[in-house]
Amino acid sequence: MAPSKLMIPLSYTAILGGSLTLVGTSTNLVVNGQYQQLTGDDGFSLFSITLIGAPVAVLGMAFIWWWFPRWLPDRGEQQAFGNLREFTLEVTVDPHGPLVGKTVAQAGLRHLERVYLAEVERQGGTLVTAVPSEEVLQAGDRLVFAGDTQAISDLLRINGILPSPENGHSATLNRDRAERRLVEAVVSPHCAALGKNIRDAKFRDRYGAVVLAVARNGERVTGNLGNIRLKAGDTLFLEARPAFVTRQRYNKDFLLVNDLNAEAPRHERAYLSWGILLVAVGLAAVGVLSMLNAALIAAGLMIFTGCCSVNQAERSLDLTVLITIAASFALGTALQQTGVAELLANGIIDVSGATPWLMLILTYIAVSLLTETITNNASAVLMLPIVLEMTDKAGLAHEPFVFAIMMAASASFATPLGYQTNLMVYGPGGYRFADFLKVGVPMNLFIAAVTLSLLMLFWPLTR
Predict the structure, then answer these.
(1) Is the separation of the CB atoms in 406 and 28 below 8 Å?
(2) Of 35, 160, 295, 324, which one is least surrounded by beta carbons within 10 A?
(3) Measured distance CA(383)–CA(403) in Å, rounded
(4) Alpha-carbon distance 321 to 376, whole Å?
(5) Closest C-alpha to 34, from 329, 321, 339, 340
(6) Over the stretch 172-203, which tens digit does the pLDDT of each residue have?
(7) Cα–Cα distance between 136 and 49 in angstroms, integer?
(8) Which position has the higher pLDDT, 378 or 86?
(9) pTM of the entire structure?
């Protein structure tokens, strides 16, 4: 089955699952924290949103199962990186030529226009990956270059370079080696190299890896590899040192790191980690422990029992989310103190004619549009103070409007940029932007209709 038939449903069901509990997504935690700070209330319990999230998730998955097989593209198996010969080439250092004994930089191989050096294989079997500029060339070295394979003629003009026995195409990369990892990685919106071309970003020095090829919108980007400007959602095919995978899997520069040489994962502590999770959720649900204390105790047990290491736990902390939660307190207070929240709240009341159900619909639409254009957390942080001001002025209940914010901020289906899981599947699924619009807009409308109907039927809008 083509990945394009499965990747978007994978992302969308993950989004729907996040709406089941208060800890399902960082957006719910951000909204709950800001709500407590702005109103002084105790906030919401772990399963407060489940009465909305569970029916939405079930009906949403039914919608996906029924319609998406017809709507999603069938592009076959993703082949953007299917053939190493398409984007790598190999030459040999002439044993009697002038390059022997020179460094890569001295030989003029560091700043070539159309290709750059990925690895060096020595005659004795030694392999040098992510080749540094100071690496000294030896007689008979096999040099693997990545980029525009039509540049083989340019390389052969260099005095001291000979064609390889494989007619210029790399045979070295087709062999498994312990010193090398071939890795696929999806670029995150927080990547330090975002917006820069590969050469200027010093990708090799920064990550200890060499970009062999770049795929965007399901197709490999051709041309001068060093001049490709990286965008969020790009899929990179990398040749890296073995440490790259463990180092970057918990880094925020890449949303997804797929080690193509990876060993099978270890599952021996899976049941233990499940047990810790379920006990923590259960204690928080019945009120024996607060959500914070239950989470802290569970995290400590995960480390103590060896389910994860201290370094893994530390790297898994999402600094962006923590900063967003902290900043939301100040932003919410500022919107109220300066009168901005009151001004916008009065505008919504005037547009809706002070009709409660219409105000609820407008709230959902506003958050949904913001989520598709900025991020889910930012849209929720911006709208909550406005909505609280609006409900106070109109004498309406807070809860249904806060739930509408939580659901609308998470229900981001129409673009790959609105939610992190959409970006994760964007490259591997071979999608184009229009694919998300085709299935995501109907999904957005369906989830909005279900959510708003449930809120109006089961929650009183007036106090």
Answers:
(1) yes
(2) 295
(3) 12
(4) 11
(5) 329
(6) 666 666 667 778 888 888 788 888 888 888 88
(7) 62
(8) 378
(9) 0.72
- CB contact set of 421 (below 8 Å; sequence gap of 6+): 10, 11, 14, 15
Question: Does pLDDT of 17 surpass 90?
Answer: yes
pLDDT tens readout for residues 274-298: 999 999 989 988 888 888 899 899 9
**The token pair that represents 91 in the structure block:** 């030459």
Amino acid present at 119: E
The interaxial angle of helices 399-410 and 376-394, nearest 10 deg, is: 160
